[in-house]
Amino acid sequence: ARPLLEEALAVSREVLGDRHRFTLNSIGNLGALLQALGGLDESRPLFEEALAARREVLGDRHPLTLESINNLGGLLRAQGRLDKAQPLLEEVLAVRRGVHGARDPDTLSSINNL
Fold it and tell me: Could you give the domains of the chain?
């Protein structure tokens, strides 16, 4: 799967550009795969890139931006960097609570992530 995701990302970057939603999805997908394979250090720059681009293009409250924040927070938590993970996960929770309410499944998922 990794070679295919790397190829998809390379083609997306070339054809669509670094800020296109498909490219950002490919970046996140490759980061998630690397994390699942134990490549925590390899996945971090990808999650950081996706988050920075989504904040810029979509804004801080967009669901895909929140997904990117959550992904980076989860990765940092998995690396034992709780001091860096907690503010990110709290940011996601605050926005989801404000937008969806306390009983929404996404809000409850954010609570569990903390």
Answer: 2-113 (1.25.40.10)
